[in-house]
Each structure stands twice: as C-alpha cells, then as structure tokens.
C-alpha cells in the first residue's frame, strides 16, 4: 500500500555480506585479489586480441567484447563492496542506487546476448565451415554486437523507468551488497506488483530466448561433431565449445533463480550468494576458462612472453 503522509527516503544503507568481525580483513583481501585478477585477466585478454592479428576473427571479437562487459560488470559492483567492508555508514543515495542498478542491468543483459551470439558463431563455424566466411562477415558481427549492447541498454532503461513509480518510506535498509532491483522492491511503500511483473516478463523473455539459441546451436554442433571420424577434430571442437558451455551454465543458473524465479523476503542470504557468483566470480572465471581451453590464446600469450622477456 502507498503511504501518502510518510517522508520519502532518498538514502539507504547497504547491509553487505554477513560475516563475523574476524573475517573482515581476510574477506576484503580475498575480494580485492579477485577484483584485481578480474581486471588483469579481462583487460589482458582484450589487449591480446587487439594486438595479435591471428586473433582477428569473429570468435575473438565476441570474446573481447565479453571480456569488456565482464570488466564493466565487476567494476560496477566490487569497488563499492570493498569500500563498505570498512565503511561505518554504508550509505548510498537513491540516485546512486539507480545508476548502479542501471549499469549492472546493461552488463548482465548484454552478456546474455553475447553468450547467445557466441553460440551461434560456433554453430556456423562447425556446422557450415565452408560458408563461415560468407555468413559471419564483419558487417554481421558488428550488427550482432550493436544489437547485444542495445538490448542491454533497452532492458535497463525499461526497469529504471518503472522504478520511478516507486516511493521508499518503509525502511532504509537494503539487504544486499549492491543496489539490485529485487531488494528495492522489498522496501518500497508503493505496491511493486507491476515492477515484479515487468521483471518476470522481460527477464524471462530474454533468458528463454538466449538460452534457446545456445541450446539449439550446441545441439546442432553435437550432431555434427559426432558424425566426424577424426578424433582430433572432435577433441578440438569439444575443447572450444566446452569452455563456452561451462561459462553459459555457470552464468545462467543463478541469474535464472534471481529474476525469473525470484525468492521470498526470507531468502536474502541466498539471493546475495547468487548475485555474488554472477557479478563477481563469473567475471573472474571467464578469462581463465576461455584462455586455458583455447590453444590460439595460449600460443599468443607464449609468443608475447618470448618477445618481452
């Protein structure tokens, strides 16, 4: 119900992760190291792709953009979380809260589209190798990237516009380590049913569509590689596609439960663990997954080290 005579709140307190006081410094150092490795890994991968002509292909163009989005996503959430480990107030204004969620929503949605685009690229490369240069032209790749970022931007704008209808006067406590949309709904003194419905509809459509593209692409890839008689070709294909499938499965799991199947108010701790996984851990893991499972990337790193050491 709306509270007409209550004072509207414009500042909130992020409770952050729950931990005992003796874990404050170890957890801070742990997440600081994770964040630094995330930056080094993703920015290093981008630099490697830009500087090595052998990596100037659609697959690595999409991978470089995924690394950029992971860097952006982690930088939206982690620095503020690190500051709050030692901050006494942990205050954040409503405008800062909306900006943080807006940035996060762009990254999270864009990554969904990028993962689907990468799956389609692997389908064309493996199932239609002779037509690959004709289908995956530079123009198509740029269009797919633009559509991915526009999809992320549009999705973020929709939810931020609907946030304008909410007022906050019940509580200043946000049970999360960053400003996510579901915890905001839970402290709103305006009925957030419409907002919940919009999250369910748009997040559901985006995730169902992108997951369907990934599953369809890799189902066709699986049938194609099983027809091959060369064990070396099968191993190479599984190595390349396995990294992508691992990244997709790790990313979509918690995201699905957070927004398509949102939990109750009593499940704040589980929601935070899910958010921590896809907002902090996944950007940390992605460059490791794609680099260690990719021979071209390893060869490129080896050549670079030989030139400079």
Can I get a quick summary?
It is a multi-pass membrane protein. Helix content is 74%, strand content 3%.
Range of strand content: under 5%
Radius of gyration over all CA atoms, rounded: 21 Å
Q: So what's the CATH class?
A: Mainly Alpha
What is the straight-line distance between the termini?
Answer: 66 Å
Going by CATH, the architecture would be Up-down Bundle
Strand order of the largest sheet: 2-1-3
Low-pLDDT stretches are 1-5
Order of helices and strands: EHHEHHHEHHHHH
Biggest sheet statistics = 3 strands, mixed
Task: Please work out how many helical segments DSSP would assign.
Answer: 10
In CATH, the topology is named Rhopdopsin 7-helix transmembrane proteins
**Assigned CATH superfamily:** Rhodopsin 7-helix transmembrane proteins
* Alpha-beta content class: mainly alpha
Organism: Sus scrofa
Family: Belongs to the G-protein coupled receptor 1 family.
Transmembrane segments: 25-48, 60-79, 99-120, 140-158, 196-226, 238-261, 276-293
Pfam families: 7tm_4
Topology:
Layout: E1 11-14, H1 24-51, H2 58-84, E2 91-93, H3 94-127, H4 132-135, H5 138-163, E3 173-174, H6 181-186, H7 193-226, H8 231-260, H9 268-292, H10 295-308
Helix pairs in contact: 1-2, 1-9, 2-3, 2-9, 3-5, 3-7, 3-8, 5-7, 7-8, 8-9
């Amino acid at each position: 119900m709306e509270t007409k005579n209550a004072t509207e709140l414009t500042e909130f307190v992020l409770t952050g992760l729950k931990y005992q006081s003796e874990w404050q410094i170890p957890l801070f150092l742990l997440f600081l190291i994770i964040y630094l490795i995330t930056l080094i890994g993703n920015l290093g991968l981008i630099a490697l792709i830009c500087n090595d002509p052998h990596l100037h292909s659609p697959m690595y163009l999409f991978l470089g953009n995924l690394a950029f989005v992971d860097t952006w996503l982690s930088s939206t959430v982690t620095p503020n979380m690190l500051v709050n480990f030692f901050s006494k107030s942990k205050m954040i204004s409503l405008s800062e809260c909306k900006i943080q969620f807006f940035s996060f929503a762009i990254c999270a949605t864009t990554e969904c589209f990028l993962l689907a685009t990468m799956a389609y690229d692997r389908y064309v490369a493996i199932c239609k190798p002779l037509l690959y240069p004709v289908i995956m032209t530079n123009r198509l790749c740029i269009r797919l990237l633009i559509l991915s970022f526009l999809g992320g931007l549009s999705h973020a704008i929709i939810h931020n516009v609907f946030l304008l209808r909410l007022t906050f006067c019940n509580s200043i406590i946000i049970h999360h380590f960053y400003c996510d949309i579901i915890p905001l709904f839970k402290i709103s003194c305006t009925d957030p049913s419409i907002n919940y419905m919009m999250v369910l509809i748009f997040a559901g459509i985006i995730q169902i569509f992108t997951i369907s593209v990934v599953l369809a692409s890799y189902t066709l890839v699986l049938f194609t590689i099983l027809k091959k008689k060369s064990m070396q070709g099968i191993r190479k294909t599984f190595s390349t596609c396995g990294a992508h499938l691992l990244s997709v499965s790790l990313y979509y799991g918690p995201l699905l439960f957070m927004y398509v199947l949102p939990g109750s108010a009593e499940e704040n701790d589980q929601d935070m663990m899910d958010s921590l996984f896809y907002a902090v851990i996944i950007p940390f893991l992605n460059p490791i997954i794609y680099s260690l499972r990719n021979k071209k990337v390893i060869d490129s790193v080896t050549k670079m080290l030989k030139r400079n050491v």
